[in-house]
């Protein structure tokens, strides 16, 4: 029998994990991983954290270099896939080479959404999506530098925390009236706002930037609709992402805020699959296709879709979950971000506690603050759509949450 | 080898963990009556593995980014960790638990 060739496009978390999972699920044919960055796949979460603050401690490896050779994973790095012919099952690379595939996994992820008004300033304006971006930014932050962070989402806040830790003066400029409007419970937004203020970050909410200019000495000035001008030495913005869907669109795949896939991770073409930030997978519980921009999703979905490619099994559904680390504190969020009520488990004053979100009496969301060991049982509670029976002291941290979960599910 | 006191055996019931503040810190776990000792500092970051989540399949999950390690061998089983945790020998002497930490290990 002719040897099969399976190709993965994208050199990020989902791609790297999928490559390993294809092998462990038993795929023995030729396996090619195409990534347009020069680096072997690496972890992105440290880019806004350790890579800025303590690069020598940043732990970026997904698989050690030897892993790829040992598992016969052919890496084509530093070269983008520029053409995809779904009919002929052929990928064309930027260097002109052509690879025919029997199966393809698209794990092309996302890039920082561009902000043309700021980009036209040229130097002094940064985004952080890649290792190269983060290393470049690091060289521009030092004690006393005035950093303007545009966007009060997770990435903006992490960069603000890092810049403060590096001794900079930081102003966060947010269009909305609150932080993390897209992706976090209000309760977390409140906690983080306080934490950042305590560390000296200044916030400007409801801010619409109308003009951006640069003085001869390099100083950047942002004029707001309110009439206020904010000045700084550099700008870092994090205003969301744009998905790398161009190949999928050109190949005629069904794309709608992400590459649409079924529960096997299969796109509208039966031999082409998608996973990670770029994919929008069918979720039978929600009766909808959902997309997540989280490490946990790239990790779990990359592995599950790869397994599905080999075995045909459906992907298990995970409770949405992510973490953010700021000022050395760890925050984890799972499930729905809105709830009728948030129960506090533990003493907030200790800085180590869990919040459980209840909607119609059912646990639909959870948040841990420096208390990650409770996230696993909390996720189990959300997955089971658990109700808390009368008499179960769910808020008593003296009671093991795991045991309580068994009573609620 | 230095023999370092952990706690009374009775004070480490199944499902529980203890941190020993020697250098390097050691995490001691009781999984269903079997005692294991691993380096306490997660190889991926700053997390203390004694705060981790003990699983029935003889693994412990880091509380910060969920990397899983084998309690028996210290092996890093899942991302984001790729470096194994050191393991330490456990000694039960009378009613007490001890870990054996190689001398010269601590700097
Ligand atoms: C700064 C930062 C901090 C983060 N922190 C956290 C966190 O604390 N917690 C959390 O849960 N999540 C975090 N995330 C999110 C998490 O990193 C992403 O969800 C995850 O990286 C998605 O993985 P992916 O493989 O789907 O996509 P990506 O990581 O985007 O990887 C896609 C790769 O494919 C490449 N590519 C794209 N198109 C092509 C092409 N045509 N040819 C070849 N290669 C191509 C891209 O260059 C990229 O290397 C963070 C993200 C960033 C940027
Ligand atoms: S600190 Fe343990 S997994 Fe990151």
From TrEMBL, chain A:
Domain Reductase C-terminal residue range list: 321-405
Molecular functions per Gene Ontology: dioxygenase activity; oxidoreductase activity, acting on NAD(P)H
Glycosyltransferase among keywords: no
Keyword field: Dioxygenase, FAD, Flavoprotein, Oxidoreductase
Lipid biosynthesis recorded as keyword: no
InterPro entries: FAD-oxidoreductase/Apoptosis, FAD/NAD-bd_sf, FAD/NAD-binding_dom, FAD/NAD-linked_Rdtase_dimer_sf, Reductase_C, Ring-hydroxylating_dioxygenase
Named cofactor requirement(s): FAD
GO cellular component, one term: cytoplasm
Domain of life: Bacteria
Matching Pfam families: Pyr_redox_2 (PF07992), Reductase_C (PF14759)
FAD/NAD(P)-binding domain boundaries: 7-302
Full protein name: Phenylpropionate dioxygenase ferredoxin reductase subunit
Organism: Insolitispirillum peregrinum
UniProtKB/TrEMBL annotation, chain B:
TM regions (residue ranges): none
InterPro entries registered for this protein in UniProt: Rieske_2Fe-2S (IPR017941), Rieske_2Fe-2S_sf (IPR036922), Ring-hydroxylating_fd (IPR053387)
NCBIfam families tied to this protein: 3PPDioc_HcaC, PRK09965.1
Organism encoding this protein: Insolitispirillum peregrinum
Rieske domain residues: 4-99
Keyword Lyase: no
Matches recorded under SUPFAM superfamilies: ISP domain
Alphabetical UniProt keywords: 2Fe-2S, Dioxygenase, Iron, Iron-sulfur, Metal-binding, Oxidoreductase
Highest taxon listed in the record's lineage: Bacteria
Coiled coil spans: none
Name by which UniProt lists this protein: Phenylpropionate dioxygenase ferredoxin subunit
GO MF terms, alphabetically ordered: 2 iron, 2 sulfur cluster binding; dioxygenase activity; metal ion binding
Gene3D superfamilies the UniProt entry points to: Rieske [2Fe-2S] iron-sulphur domain
């Amino acid at each position: 029998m002719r040897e099969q060739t399976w190709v993965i496009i994208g050199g990020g978390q989902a791609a790297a994990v999928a490559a390993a999972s294809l092998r462990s699920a038993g795929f023995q044919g030729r396996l090619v991983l195409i990534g347009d960055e020069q680096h072997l796949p690496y972890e992105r979460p440290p880019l806004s954290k350790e890579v800025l603050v303590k690069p020598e401690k940043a732990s970026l490896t997904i698989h050690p270099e030897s892993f790829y050779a040992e598992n016969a994973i052919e890496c084509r790095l530093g070269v983008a896939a520029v053409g995809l012919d779904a009919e002929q099952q052929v990928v064309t690379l930027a260097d002109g080479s052509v690879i025919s595939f029997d199966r393809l996994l698209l794990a092309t992820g996302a890039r920082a959404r561009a902000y043309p008004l700021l980009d036209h300033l040229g130097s002094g304006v940064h985004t952080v999506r890649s290792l190269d971006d983060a290393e470049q930014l690091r060289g521009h932050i030092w004690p006393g530098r005035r950093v303007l962070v545009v966007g009060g989402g997770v990435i903006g806040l992490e960069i603000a925390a890092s810049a403060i830790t590096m001794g900079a003066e930081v102003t966060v400029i947010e269009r909305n009236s609150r932080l993390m409007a897209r992706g976090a419970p209000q309760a977390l937004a409140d906690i983080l706002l306080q934490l950042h203020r305590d560390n000296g970050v200044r916030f400007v909410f409801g801010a619409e930037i109308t003009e951006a200019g640069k003085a001869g000495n390099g100083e950047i000035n942002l004029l707001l609709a309110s009439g206020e001008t904010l000045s700084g030495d550099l700008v870092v913005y994090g205003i969301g992402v744009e998905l790398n869907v161009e190949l999928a669109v050109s190949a005629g795949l069904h794309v709608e805020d992400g590459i649409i896939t079924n529960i096997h991770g299969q796109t509208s073409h039966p031999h082409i699959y998608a996973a990670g930030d770029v994919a929008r997978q069918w979720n039978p519980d929600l009766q909808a296709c959902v997309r997540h921009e989280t490490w946990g999703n790239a990790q779990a979905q990359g592995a599950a879709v790869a397994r599905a490619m080999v075995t045909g099994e459906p992907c298990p559904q995970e409770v949405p979950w992510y973490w953010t680390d700021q000022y050395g504190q760890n925050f984890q969020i799972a499930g729905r971000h809105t709830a009728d009520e948030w129960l506090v488990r533990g003493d907030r004053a200790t800085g180590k506690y869990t919040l459980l979100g209840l909607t119609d009496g059912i646990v639909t969301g959870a948040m841990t603050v420096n208390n990650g060991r409770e996230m696993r049982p909390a996720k189990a509670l959300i997955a089971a759509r658990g109700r808390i029976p009368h008499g179960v002291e769910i808020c008593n941290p003296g009671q093991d949450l795991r045991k309580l979960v068994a009573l609620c599910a | 080898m230095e023999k370092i006191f952990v706690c009374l055996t009775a004070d480490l019931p199944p499902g529980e963990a203890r941190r020993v503040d020697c250098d390097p810190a050691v995490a001691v776990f009781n999984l269903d009556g079997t005692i294991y000792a691993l380096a306490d500092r997660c190889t991926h970051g700053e997390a203390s593995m004694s705060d981790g989540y003990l699983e029935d399949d003889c693994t412990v999950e880091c509380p910060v980014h969920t990397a899983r390690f084998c309690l028996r061998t210290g092996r890093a089983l899942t991302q984001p960790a790729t470096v194994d945790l050191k393991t330490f020998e456990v000694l039960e002497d009378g009613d007490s638990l001890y870990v054996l930490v190689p001398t010269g290990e601590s700097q």
